[in-house]
Every structure is written in structure tokens, then in C-alpha cells.
Amino acid sequence: MVSLPVAGSPNLVEVKRGSRSTILAPFPASYRGGIVATSGDVNNDSIPDIIVAARQGASGKIIVYNGKTDQVMRTFNAFPGFNGQINIASGDVNADGKSDIIVGVGGNGPSHVKVFSINVVAPIQSFIAFPGYNGGVSIASADINGDRRDDIVVGTLGGTAPQVKVFSQGNVLHSFYGFEIPSLSPIVVAAGDLDGDGKAEVMIGSGAGIVPTVTVFSGARPGQAIGSFFAFPQNYRGGLTLTVQDYNNDGKLDILAGTAGGKNPQVRVFNGRTFRQIDSFFASVGGFAGPISLG
Question: pLDDT of 239-260, one tens digit each?
Fold first, then answer.
């Protein structure tokens, strides 16, 4: 799934389902605050549903689309009255068989994270990831400790030493700093079980202003880096967007890294075990070539 996160971008999300692609325009044409999107099976029908968020300027507005029909299932504001940036992820944090919607403040505000269930109005979890820090957070979700509940991975977005925390049921499970990332730099996070041991790895990608590095941390040995690679040439400094999926349908997760800056959006795919590049393509949504967000 590819969306356009930068203010001024068209109001579009492209959803790829095998060889079929669907373009969604979730907000009014006048909205130009950027969009972020992800997927998750929120209704337990074995079909991933589409979760779309207004990136900024809209009180954290979330729209959930049925993955089978593209019909709207739910609309709500995650942070009423807050018009700064937000980031989203999905994961089954309460082990009820349905993906929950995870929303974090993405900049210029406290590191507030909320978790919503599709059928519950109030958040089922709400916490401050980094008390006293106001730079925003990137978020991801996967089962890090092998308890069959998805945990929440949170990373800092600049202005402090790049730190990652993993939360289980609102409590800190692990905390470590992003190796090979210069001090005070933003980081983006992703998570998924790359080696099939039942404990998801944590991936850290560099933000804007520094070389495009991806570092992979072990799920079985929290905080231990097991691999690192450059996702793009080292002269690219526009920041990364990361996600994991079984790209080549071999039953194993791969790492997808995209350019979060620049005018020629590119995605590179890396084998999740060897970290070697296996594919590369240019991505645009509705013909718009600019910064992208992967989900």
C-alpha cells in the first residue's frame, strides 16, 4: 500500500491486491495535509482492511475501509483538537483475532500513543511512550515476545538520542537505542518475524538528513543488531519509509524500503534473511511523483 504523506500532495491512497490496484480518495479534494495508510484485518474475515489517516490538520481523523468491498466501516478522530502530524499502525494487541488501530502523535506534540478497536468508541490503550519528549513518534506492531499478542514498537522522530521502546499491554517490554544512527536524528520503525522463530524482529530506518540505513534487531535477543544495510545510495538523504510483507509469496517476510523524500519515489525490496536486494521499482499514486509512505 502506498500513500502520499507530505502536505500539498493529492488526496490519494493506492491499494495493491496482487495484480489489481485500487485508488482511494478518502478525504475532500480541498484537504492537502497528506495521508498515511496501513492494513489490518479489523473484522476477522481473513481479508486485510484498509486504515487511512489524515496526516495532519484534521484532529487525527481515521477512516477504515472494508478490504473486500472498499466500503467505509468506521470513521473517528484519534486526537480531537490536535492538528499536528500523526502516524498509524495496526496489530492485534488484545488477542481477540481482530487487528486494532494504533495511532501516535507524529510531530510537535507529546509522544502519545492510542489503540482503538473497530467496535469500541474509546481507546482500549493510551500511553505516553517517552515522557517529557515532544518530537513525535513512528510506530509499528508485531508479536515481539512470542505471547501471541502483537506488541507496539515506538521510535523517536528527532531532537533526542534515537530510541526505541517496545510496549506490551501498555507496559515497556524492551528499550534500546538505535545503533549506527547519529545522535538526535529521527528514526522510523517496522516489525515482523523475519526468521520464523515466533518473535518479531525490529527494523530501524534513518530519517531525513542522514544516510539511508536500515538496521535489524533480533526478536529473540532484544536490542542486539543482527544486520544493517544501505537501502539506497549514500548520497540520498531524504529519509526512509519501511514495511514488511511476503513480497515474493515464499511464505517468508521481506523488507520494503521506500524514499520518504524527493520527486522520484522508489521502493527497494530486501530478502528478510540475507538482507540482499531482490527487487526495485518506482512508485507513484495516481500519477503523482513525490515522497511516499509504505503501509
Answer: 999 999 999 999 999 999 999 8
Q: Do 109 and 146 contact (CB within 8 A), yes or no?
A: no
State the Cα–Cα distance between residues 94 and 144, nearest whole angstrom.
Answer: 14
Mean pLDDT of the 148-174 span = 96
| Residue 269 to residues 16, 36, 157, 280, Cα–Cα distance (Å) | 15, 20, 24, 6
Residues found in the chain: 295
pLDDT value of residue 4: 67
Backbone dihedral angles phi then psi of residue 167, each to the nearest 5 degrees: -110, 135
- Helix or strand or coil: residue 278? strand
Rounded-to-integer distance, Cα 289 and Cα 283, Å: 8
Instruction: Express each pLDDT in 46-76 by its tens digit.
Output: 999 999 999 988 999 999 999 999 999 999 9
Task: List the one residue out of 59, 57, 44 whose CA is nearest residue 90.
Answer: 44
Q: Is the C-alpha dihedral spanning 126, 131, 134, 136 positive or negative?
A: negative
Distance set, CA 231 to CA 90, 146, 207, 278 (Å): 24, 28, 12, 12
pLDDT for 121:
86
List helix spans (H) across the chain: none
Rounded distance between C-alpha atoms, residue 19 and residue 148, angstroms: 31
Question: 293 pLDDT exceeds 90?
Answer: no
* 45/42 Cα distance (integer angstroms): 8
Integer Cα distance of 111 and 135 in angstroms: 7
Residue-wise DSSP of 170-208:
TEEEEEEE-TTS-TT-BEEEEEE-SSSSSS-EEEEEE-T
